[in-house]
Amino acid sequence: MTDWKQKLAAWVHDPAEKSLILMRTREGHEQGTSRILRERLGIDAATLDKRADWLASAADRPNWPRPEHARYPAWERVSFTAEPSLIHPLSGDRIDLRPLATDIAPDEAKTLSTDHFSRLIFEGDAYRTFLAFWRFGPEGRLVKDLGPLWQLMPADSRVPDHSIWAHLDSVSALASALSGGERPALLAMSFGPVQGFIAQARSTSDLWAGSHLLSTIVWEAIRSIAEAVGPDAVLFPSLRGVPAVDAWLASDAVLGERGRELLQEIRSDVCTDASDTNPLFAAALPNKLMAIVPESRVRALAEQAAANARLRARAIAERAARAVLEQSGAIEPEASLPQAVEAQIAAQMAEFPEVQWSAAIWPITDDVRDLGSAAGQLQQALGAIHPGLRKQGIFQDDIWRVLSRELELDGFEFWRPNAGVLYPAVFELAERSLAAAKTARPFQQLTQVGHRCTQCGEREWLTDDRAQLELNRTDRNAVSLWGKLAGKRRSWAKDGEHLCAVCTAKRLWPTLFATEVAAGLVGKDVDKVSRFVVSTHALAVSTAIEGAIERAQTRPEATVALGNLNSAIASLGPRLESATLPKRIMPQLHQHPGLLAVAKRLPDLFEQLREEPDPGEPLAGTDIRQGDIERWVKDLFGARPETYYALIQMDGDRMGAWLAGNEDAYKLPYRDTWHPRIQAKVGEFARRDDALAAYARTKRPPSPARHAAISRALNDFSIHLARHVVEDCVKGKLIYAGGDDVLALVAVDDLFDAMQLLRLAYSGLEVPESLGLSERIGRLGPEGQRRGSNRLWLKQGFGMLDGRLMTLMGHKATASMGAVVAHHTAPLGMVLRELRTAEGHAKQAGRDRFCLRILKRGGGEVSVTSPWWAVTEKGRPIMERPRSDSDQTPCDFTALGLMSRLRSELAQTDFSRAAIYRAQQWLEGVTDARSNADGPRWREQVAGALAYQFRRQGGTGQFAPELVDFVCDVICPEHPRATLENLLVGAEFFARESRSARPVRQGEPS
Questions:
Q1: Do residues 134 and 142 lie in contact, with contact meaning Cβ atoms separated by under 8 Å?
Q2: Which stretch is the leader sequence (predicted)?
Q3: For residues 702 and 666, what is the distance between their CA atoms, to the nearest angstrom?
Q4: Which of 191, 380, 492, 872 could form a disulfide with 287 if both were Cys (CB 3.0 to 4.6 A apart)?
Q5: Are residues 950 and 987 both part of a single domain?
Q6: What is the distance between the terminal CA atoms of the chain, rounded to a whole angstrom?
Q7: Are residues 163 and 190 in the same domain?
C-alpha cells in the first residue's frame, strides 16, 4: 500500500517558491514554507528518504553538492528575481521573463506560497491533500500576484530548464517506489489498435468516436495506476491538467466539492460546460504510458490496468448494444440482453483493447553512489536484447567516462554521480522490452461465422438471432434489428449497415459519452450534453456564409435574397434539418438572426435540391422552384457557394527518437542548459580543466524532467492550442488531437492559415508579421494579452493562451502534415485514404514538410509537397527575408505564404486567371536546368516569363522571382518546373470566387 503521508513529505521537501527566496533568507529554503507545511500536515522531516531527492537531482541536473554550512561562491549565486530566465529543455533557447517578473520580497513570496498551499489541505486526509497539492499547487491562476511565472518556476535557477514541479513529482514518485526497501521500476504499457481502428469510419462522427473511445479506455488503465501510486508516478503522459483527470479529481470519491470549486477558479469547465466545447470531448491521451512504480507491484499494477481497460470497453459495448436493441424494439427497456448478444460481446471484446507491457528495474542499493554493480546489471540486461546495446546510450565510452566520475570546480565538488544517472539506461531497457513484447504478443483466435460487420469486416455483426448471420443483405435488412434501427435512428445505422460489438460501441459512443458528461455536470439539469458535428457540406458552405454576413447588410440584392430564402425555408418547415456551423462564425451570425436561420438549413436544402428529379418543377408542397433558390443564393453570397472542404492530418516527426534521446540531434550539451552566468564561469574553469570541459560539452542524456517536458508540451498543444487554432482562429472542427497527432476539418479559404498556425503552435515559433495572421493570433504587449480572438502568443518554444504559460516542443522539433481538399460528396473513406497518403508523402520527402492534395470532382489532382520554410544550418526556420537591399520590408519566405500571396493577387478583380493557364502551357515546353551552372540563367528566364504573363493579365508579377527562387532553393532543386506548375495551379484553385472575397465578374466562367 502507498504511504500518502510519505509522498507528501517528498513533495514538499523543497518549497515551490525556492527560486524566489534562494540565498535571500537566513534560515534557508528548507526552513521556510516546507517546514510550515510539514508542521501543519504532521509530517516528520525524517520521513523523507533522501535517496529519492539525490536520485531525482542526479537524473535531471548536475548535483552541485556542498559541504554542510558551506557558502556558495559568488559566481554561482544566480538570483531568479534579478535575472529571470528559462532555458527551453528541448531546444536550448533562452527566454527572458522580465516582462512577467515581479520584484517580490522573500517574506511576501513565502506568505503567498504558504497561503496557497494551506487552502489545499484536507485536514487528516493525506491522500486528498497530496492530490490537491499535485494538481493545484502549480496553478499560477490561484497565486494571483505571480500568475504565469508561478507555473514554470525553475527547480534550480542555475539550471533553469525544468520546473520545480517536475522535480517535486520525480522525488515523490521515487520516494514511494523506494518505500520499504523496494527498488523502483519503470513500467511501460501500450494499448491498441490505433490507426486501423480510427480509420474504420463512415462519418466525421465515427472519426471522433474512434480516437476518443481509445483515449477513454486508456484513461481507465492509467486511473488504476494513479489511484494506487499517485498521478505523479506517471511520467508519460503527463496527467496534470488533462480533462479526464480533472473530472476524476472533481468526483465525490476524490476531491469532491472543493475540487470542483478549485477547477472553476482556474476556469476549467469540465464540470459545468453542457456542450462539446467541454474539454472532456478532446481525445487527449496517447496509447502509451510510462510510470515509476515499486518493483514488487509491477505485475499486479500492469494486470489491473489491462483488466480495467477491458472491463471499461466491454461495459461500453454492452451499453451500446442495449441502446440498439431497445431502439429497434428487440427488447423492452431495462430488460436483460439476449444470450446470443451477450455471447457475441464477450467473445469480440475479450481482447479489446490489445495490451502489452514490460518493466525495467532501476538497480538501486542503499548506497546510491554504487554505480559499478548497478551499471553492470543494466548492461547485462540490455545485452540480452542485443549485444550492441551494452555500449550505446549513456554506456558509450566517451559519455560513461564523463558521467561516472566526480569532478571538482573552484575547490568544491561540482559533480558527484549516483545511480540517478542510470535513468536513461532503465528507460531504454523498458522501451526495448516493450517493443519485444509487441513483436511476440500472444493472441487467441476468434472464430466468426456468417456475414461480417459492414464497417470493419472483421467480426460478426450483433444479432439476437444467429440464424440471421447467413442471410443476404436484402433479407437481413427486412428482419434484423439493424434494419429496423435504420428506419428510426439514421445517426446510429444507415440502410444496410450491420455492426459488430466493437463498431457498435464506436458508433454510439458520441451519444453515450454525452450522457456521461451530462451526469457529471454540477448545477445543471440536463439529460445529455449538446454535441455538435460539423458535416463536410456545412463546413464547405461556411465560406460563403461568412462572406454573406457583410453582404446581407450592405448589398440590396443580398437583403432581398435573404428575405426570400427565409420565406422558402419557413414554407419547407420540418423537412429541413438544422446543421451545425463552425464555431468561429457563430458570434457574428447570432447578431443577425435572419441570416442564422437560413445558414443553418442551407446545407440540407442543397442536399434536397440535388436529389430533385426535375429542377424545373416546384418543390413538393410549395410553389418554389430550384432556379429561384439558386438565383437567391447567388445574390446573397455573390458567387456560387463553396462545395469543397479540407481535411488536415498532422503528426510530430520522430517522436520515438525524442523520447529515447539517444541521438545527438535530440540532445543538448550540459553547458547549454545552464544559466548564462554559470556558462561563462564554468567556461573559464573548463579552459584549464580537460575533464570539466568534457563534461560541459557532453550531450545530456534523457531524464524524468525531459520526459515530463515532452509530455506537457504535447498535452498543452493537443488540449489547448490545437482546438484554439482550429475552432477559434479559423473555420474548422477538431476531430481529435492526441499528443502530436491532429486530425481536423477546415474550410478551404482558411486552409493555409490553419496549416501554418498548427505547425507554428506545435513548436512554439513566433508568427511573422509577413504571414498576415495578426487578426487570428495576438502578440504579448506591455500590458499583457489582448482580449477577443487575439489570445495566443508564441515565441522561442514557449506559448501563452488565456494567461497560461506553456513550454512547447521548440524549434528543433518538427512536424509533417497531409492536407486534402475534396468535394463534400466524395466518400469519406476515400478522402481519408488520400489524407494518409499525403501525410506519408510529406514524411517520405524528408519530414518537416506538408503535402497538399486537391482532389477535383471532375477528375485530376494537384499535389504540392514542400518544406514549410527554409532553415539555417542549425535548423532554425527562415520565415522572412528582405525584399531587396534597398527595401528592407520583410516578406514571407514560406511555401504557403507565397501561395497565399499568389492567391490574393489572382483574386483581384482585374487579374484574369488566364495568366495561370498560359503560364502552365508555356511551362510544359520548358526543361529543368541541366547543371548548376545553368541554374541562375534558368531562374532568370522562368521568373521573367512568369512575371510577363502576370502583368499581361492584369497582375503585378512582383514576387515571381521570389516564387521561382523558393522552388529552386527550398522545395525541389532537382525538378523545379513541375513543382512550380503545381504551385501555380494550386493557387489558382484557391483563388476562385467561391473561396475568396473576390466579386463575380460579368462574363467570366466560374
A1: no
A2: none
A3: 9
A4: 191
A5: yes
A6: 72
A7: no
Could you tell me the CATH number of the domain that includes residue 208? 3.30.70.2220
Quote the pTM value. 0.90
CA distance 801 to 241: 14
Residues 30-88: tens digit of each pLDDT: 667 888 999 999 988 777 888 999 899 888 876 665 555 556 677 777 878 777 788 99
State the angle between helix axes of 164-178 and 204-229 in degrees (0 to 180), rounded to the nearest 10: 60
Which one of 115, 147, 181 terminates a domain? 181
Give pLDDT tens digits for 251-277.
Answer: 999 999 999 999 999 888 899 988 888
Longest Cα–Cα distance of the chain, Å, equals: 97
- Is-contact 185 298, C-beta < 8 A? yes
Least confident among 17-31, 770-784, 788-802: 770-784
Which residues are within 8 A (CB) of 503 and not within 5 positions of it... i.e. 6 or more apart?
200, 453, 455, 456, 459
State the Cα–Cα distance between residues 200 and 435, nearest whole angstrom.
Answer: 25
Cell of 966: 523558393
pLDDT of residue 596: 92
In a domain, 548, yes or no: yes
CA distance linking residue 348 with residue 447, whole number of Å: 10
* d(C-alpha 713, C-alpha 707), whole Å: 10
| 325 close to 464: Cβ distance less than 8 angstroms | yes
CATH code for the domain of 837 = 3.30.70.270
Q: What are the tens digits of pLDDT across the range 117-132? A: 999 999 999 999 999 9
Residues 612 and 648 in one domain: no
Nearest 5°: the CA angle 542, 997, 752 is 70
Of residues 152, 232, 167, 286, the one with CA closest to residue 797: 152
Q: Are 621 and 743 in a shared domain?
A: no
Residue with cell 489541505: 121
pLDDT tens across 133-190, in order?
999 999 988 887 777 778 888 988 888 899 999 999 999 999 999 998 899 999 999 9
> Of 893, 886, 890, which Cα lies nearest the Cα of 867?
893
How far, CA to CA in Å, does 912 sit from each of 898, 995, 1001?
A: 19, 16, 10
Q: Do 825 and 738 share a structural domain? A: yes
